[in-house]
Structures are given as C-alpha cells and as structure tokens.
Amino acid sequence: MFVDVAVLGAGAWGTALATVLARSQARVWLHAYRADHARALERERENRRLLPGVALLPAVAVTNDYQTALADAATVLLVVPTQTLRQTLEHARPSLRPDAVLVSACKGIETQSGRLVHQIVADVLGPDALERTVHLSGPSFAGEVARQTPTNLVAASRDSRLAEAVQALVATEWLRVYTSDDPIGVEVGGALKNVIAIAAGACVGLGLGYNAQAALVTRGLAEMTRLTLALGGQAQTLAGLSGLGDLILSCTFAGSRNRELGVQVGRGVPLAEAFAALGGVAEGYSTAKAVQAIASESGVDLPICDEVYQVLHRGKPVRAAVSDLMARPLKKEWT
Q1: What is the spatial distance between Cα 277 and Cα 284, in angstroms, rounded to a whole number?
Q2: Which of 205, 252, 266, 273 has the lowest tally of Cβ within 10 angstroms?
C-alpha cells in the first residue's frame, strides 16, 4: 500500500480522486497549477466551482509547488487535460522520484503531435517510464465518485502486478476497480468516446430522436474498436468499462461536457458561446482534430469522428454532416 500520493490536476476529477485516496492513504498532495486556485482550495477546503458540496478531507493538502507535491510521492496521478500533459510532465520531471508509479487519468490525444498519453509520457520521461505507468479509466463522473455512489473503473498496464497495485490503491467498498493488460485500448476508448459524445449531443440538439442516438453510439463504438486494433490494442477492451461503459455515460448523461457541447452546436449556438457556457474542458474538441492525423496514418475509416472534426474545425453545417453520414455507400456491418 502506498503512503504518499500526489494528484497533479485540481479540476473536478483530480479533486474527486484525491478525496477517494485520502480515505485510505496517510497523505495526499493535490497540486493546482494556479497559485490562486491552490490558495482557494486550501482556504475553503472545497472545490466550489468544479465540485461544489464535496469537502476536502484532512488528509488532503493543497499546493501549487511541484517539489512539495512530488518529493515523497510513491504514486503520482496525472489528472490534467491531455493538451497540457506534456507541459505538466516537463514541470514535474525534476521533482519526480525515479521509481514513482504514474497513474494516468487523462482522456484525449495531443493535438499538435497526434500522440496518445503513453507516447507523451515516453517523450518527456523516457521509454522506461512506460514500465511504471498505469492508465485509469471508465464511466466515472467526478461528482458521483466523490459522493461515494457505486462506480467501476479499469486500471491498465503492461505489468499486471503494477495494475493490481493500483487496483488495490484506488478500490473502495463503493469503487470497484478491474485490471487490464491493454493500455492502448483503454487510452483509445477514453479519447474517442469524447468525440462520439459530441456527435451524440448534436443529435439531441437537432432533435433527431432516440433511433439516431442509438445508431450513432453503436457505430461510434465500431470506430473506437477499429482504431484500437490498428494501433495494437484488443477489441474486447472496447466492450468493457473504458470503451462501451464510458461511451454510454458520456453520450447519454446531461452532465457530460462533450455531449453538452454537441447539444449546443446542434442547436446552432456559436462555438465561442458554447464553450463559454461549459464551465470546463471538452476534450473531444481537441481530440477530433488530433485523431485525423492518426486515422490518416493508420488508414482507418472513422466517418463519425471525421464529421465531428469537419463541423467543429472546418465550419461544416451540422445537418450536412448528418446527411453525408447517412449517404455513405451501403456495406456489411462488420467490414
């Protein structure tokens, strides 16, 4: 059992995970990038903007200093937007213990490089860091986790013993954690489900009905699976918590920021206004752009992801995107 844990990222999910760990760990350092945010968390003992009503436990200490947070941390959770992960790791690298276990709770693809999370970790910390990296994912909205409602996650690593160690670290009587040996599949599922959720939200915004939403989620899962296989992952992973489970949650729950972005776009709300109303990051926006390069390089057909990209980044009308999806050549379902 680890004693000292650092959580890098004091958003809703980082705060929720710090709360989970504090119930069983001696000390948890919650690192906030902004000094004013760290001071507010320490003063109010609550993340009032992103996770209101959830008190920070006494075992959680807050700082915006990497050295303070990381000096004794045997386990480090990475809970930042994927687009800032590289910068976070570069800031953290001088203070990281060389044997620290890295637990990634990031869900996305880096826009500038098209790199997955494990590739960013290797870029900054070296390939050896992958041997001590675990990917934590699954259907898990922060508010419900922090309030101890039943939740399931999956911890994936190349090293089964490491995955089991993180499983034991995170699991509680209300938070059940499974293990997986397919970090690629877990990463792809966590990234692409955000893009599909934007498309699902657009269906709602357009008033297309439940049939369209069900079809879109199902075909979105097919796209997630195709890309996973192309990158060396396992198809069965996408039928699990980090694939289908997270996809269902993100596409159907009104609290999903990615779904809500799609709803607003479907209703014709300008992107700038839609983002301003979100109150947080919609990872699917950046991932839709990043996945274009990966799909092109791997030769994988991702029509839903492509149409989301065209709408968000190229200004394509939403109804034209729907029409083009429906007009694609007829084919077998599993080809």
Answers
A1: 16
A2: 273
Residue pair 32/38 in contact by the 8 Å Cβ criterion:
yes
Does residue 125 carry a pLDDT above 60?
yes
The pairing of strands 46-47 and 151-156 is: unpaired
Domain boundaries 4-181, corresponding CATH code:
3.40.50.720
Indicate the length of the chain as a whole number.
335
Domain with CATH 1.10.1040.10 in the chain: 184-326
Q: Which residues are CB-contacts of 199 (< 8 A; sequence separation ≥ 6)? A: 216, 220, 262, 304, 307, 308
Q: How confident is the model at residue 1 (pLDDT cuts 50, 70, 90)?
A: very low
Query: Quick one: 53 exposed, middle or buried, by C-beta within 10 A (0-12, 13-18, 19+)?
Result: exposed
Distance CA 41, CA 113 (A): 33
Q: How far is CA 221 from the centre of its chain?
A: 16
State the pLDDT at residue 25: 67
- Residue holding tokens 């397919």? 182
Which residues, in sequence order, are CB contacts of 37 under 8 Å at separation 6+? 10, 64
pLDDT tens for each residue of 32-41: 999 999 999 9
State the span(s) of the chain assigned CATH 3.40.50.720.
Answer: 4-181
193 a catalytic residue: yes
Please name every residue paired with 30 in a beta bridge, in sequence order, or none if there are none. 7, 62
Instruction: Choose, from 107, 193, 316, 331, the residue flagged as catalytic.
Output: 193
**How sure is the predictor about 3, in pLDDT bands with cuts at 50, 70 and 90?**
low
Q: What pLDDT does 231 receive? A: 95
Whole-angstrom distance, CA of residue 102 vs CA of residue 86: 14
